[in-house]
Description:
The chain is mainly α. It contains five helices and no strands. Helix 4 runs antiparallel to helix 5. The radius of gyration is 11 Å and the shape is flat.
Amino acid sequence: YTESLVSSQDPCVLSNRSAAYLSLNCFDLALQDSNIVIRLRPDWFKGYQRQGECYEKQGNYSLAISSFQKA
């Protein structure tokens, strides 16, 4: 990784990295990135979608439903 990608504040990059972390079962890292996406772009559904996927994988279904509803 280049430093610019690792420390990216680009919501698209962070959303994609969150998806990659999810596919690797690194749910805490995926959740961190999804939360940053939401902070940067609260009007964009992808952050909430990724967040919901993280919560679902962690078995926190009430938070997952809430995130999916926001998406």
